[in-house]
Amino acid sequence: MTNVVLVDGVRTPHGTLLGSLADVSAVELGRTALDGLLDRTGIAPDHVDWVSLGNAIQAGIGQVPGRQAVVESRLPNATPATTVNEASGSGLRAIALAADRIDAGRASVAVAGGLESMTNAPWVLPEYRKGRRHGDVLLKDSMIQDSLWDQNLDVHMGEITERLVDRHADEYDLSRARQDEYALESHRLAAEAIETGAFDDETVSVETPDGPVAQDEGPRPESSMEDLAALRPAFREDGTITPANASKLSDGAGAVLLADADRAADFDLEPTCTLVDYAVAYREPDEFNEAVGDVLETLLETNTLDVGEVGAYWVNEAFAAQSVYVMERLGIPRERMNPRGGAVAFGHPISASGGMLAAALAHQFRQESIEYGVMGMSVGGGGAIMSLWRRG
């Protein structure tokens, strides 16, 4: 158990690729989350000792985007800031670094999370600095290059997940139908949460040229199994993964306010939950999906908790196949796995997901009587990072 409490969290809406947030930069999304968090918590800006923000797709975004967001926000320019790039794990790694800093006594109040605009990721011209005398020029999509492609294996993360299905086909039901069923349920839960206002308190509106955007894009509860079955596989001709049962490409930002428990009391800040522990696991790059199961098992065993004692598992839905695998391996009930829908429905804005999921979990603690919650995700290159939180 640490002395680090999560006071509150906010996030922008999830914007789909080329959707309502297309004209908003990642830095502006981050700035919106930071200022929204200051408004939500009422903390004086000069009481924040440190900021850490994840950002994964950094081609063309400019120098230290986390620092850019701080300067654009109401935080003082003297506020130290760092930018973290650990692929999908960037936002949660930023939160973990902030927690470590508080736990070590090097800060008492910190803001952490992530920001990402997949829509605004540019195309790049590899090797063009050397010039070309003749012949074709190759354009590469930095969105894929910097976040969706395993450089060690030189394959898309989707192909690696197809290999997960191959490896465990005899052990678990990871069939196309099972993935599609999971995806449909994610859309249903997401739409239901939006309809009932479950996300209203955690979401901050984003100003765009077309007006404010306050609601998540993405969920399609009207889809059917027949609709999903008609889609072609995305990574193999005979594959199981489609655009419908994989996480959407999206834009967004999220941030949480962390504090030393005593310092929070000094500022009359009421904690939402306390960080119990976090853990990291790594395997071969080809097995990043399995690493999610490893890190969850480690986190629960280290803290002597049974699967059933955790009320909510906010585990990023990089692919429905991964989520089904983790549920089967650990015996996690479906109703506790991303109970308000996940990235298959909303989208996975890479580094922003850590901050956005943390904000969502914090507000579930406020709204429901769960005692423990888990939040985390897989990390490209063979890893996973996961955190465990306790009410109050």
How would you portray this structure in words?
With 392 residues, this protein is an alpha+beta fold. The protein has a domain at 4-120 and 248-391: 3-Layer(aba) Sandwich (Peroxisomal Thiolase, Chain A, domain 1). The protein is 34% helix and 21% strand. The chain has twelve helices and 16 strands. Strands 1, 2, 3, 4, 5, 12, 13, 14, 15 and 16 form a ten-stranded mixed β-sheet that branches. α1 packs across α2 (65-72) and α9 runs parallel beside α10. The relative contact order is 0.22.
Salient structural properties:
globular, 12 helices, ten-stranded mixed sheet, 392 residues, Peroxisomal Thiolase, Chain A, domain 1
What's the topology here?
Elements: E1 4-11, E2 15-16, H1 26-41, E3 50-54, H2 65-72, E4 81-84, H3 90-103, E5 109-117, E6 123-124, E7 140-141, H4 142-148, E8 149-150, E9 155-156, H5 157-168, H6 176-195, E10 206-208, E11 211-213, H7 225-229, E12 250-260, H8 261-266, E13 273-282, H9 288-302, E14 312-315, H10 320-330, H11 343-346, H12 352-367, E15 372-379, E16 383-391
Parallel strand pairs: 3-4, 3-5, 14-15
Antiparallel strand pairs: 1-12, 1-13, 2-12, 5-12, 6-7, 8-9, 10-11, 13-16, 15-16
Determine the N-to-C terminus distance.
12 Å
Overall geometric form: globular
| CATH secondary-structure class of the domain at 4-120 and 248-391 | Alpha Beta
Mean pLDDT: 97
- By CATH, the architecture of the domain at 4-120 and 248-391 is named 3-Layer(aba) Sandwich
Condensed summary:
34% of the residues lie in helices and 21% in strands.
